[in-house]
Every structure is written in C-alpha cells, then in structure tokens.
Amino acid sequence: MLFKSATSRNIFSTVALGVVTTIGVAATVVGISYGAIRGAGIDKMQTAASEAAAEVNRTLSVAHEMVAGLDYSVSALRQQGIADRELVMAVLTKTLEGFPGAIGLSTGWEPNAFDGKDSEFVGNPSTIRPAALCPTSIVPAA
Q: Global pTM?
C-alpha cells in the first residue's frame, strides 16, 4: 500500500538515498578524523621520544666527559710519577663532587699495575684481593 503510487516510491527512494548518503558521509568523516587524530598522536609520541632520547644523550655525554676527564687526570699523574693512592682517591672524590648526577666513582687496576706497592696495602679498604688498587668514592647518604 505504501508503494502503490509513483509519488510514494519516489519519496521513499529520496529518503532512503538521503539516509545512505548521510551514513556514507558520516563514515568518511569518522575515517578522516581517525586518521588525523592517529597521525597527530604518532607525531606527538615521536616528538616526546626524540626529546627523551636527546635528554638521555646529554646525560650520557656529561657522564662520558666525566670519565674521560678522570682518565686523563689519573693518567697524567701516573706519567709524571706523582700519583699515589691517596691522591687518586682525592681525585675521585673531587670529581664526584663536581658531577651531582653521579652516585659513585671507581677505578680498578690489575695487581701491582698502579704503583707496584700492592703488598703494602693488604687489608686496606681501597684494595681488593690480592691487594689490587680499586678505590671507590660514593656520595654519602643524605
């Protein structure tokens, strides 16, 4: 009864076409919006990851510079023949004070490689078995 006349069929066809078109347009808008939101989210995550990586790189660069400086200092003292165990410990402590991000520093030597005096320091806290030099400086607990 509803579709007996051409007018009712035309009205129904127009309404049905309008509904289908509206659903199609809505789906397209949702798809485009999703893509834009997803792209923006990925861009934001990549930016945050890049910033975090840059910060880690800066921190590690500073730590590398600290270690390289410590290496140069102790090597220079040894080449001049003025390095002793107390002086190395003082260099470690002073270096640690200059880098607040560090919690401790240590240097290790094979037995008798530093100054040939390992036998004199058996039992000393700055040595390890068999009395090899291994001074460690640690930030005191607050």
A: 0.59
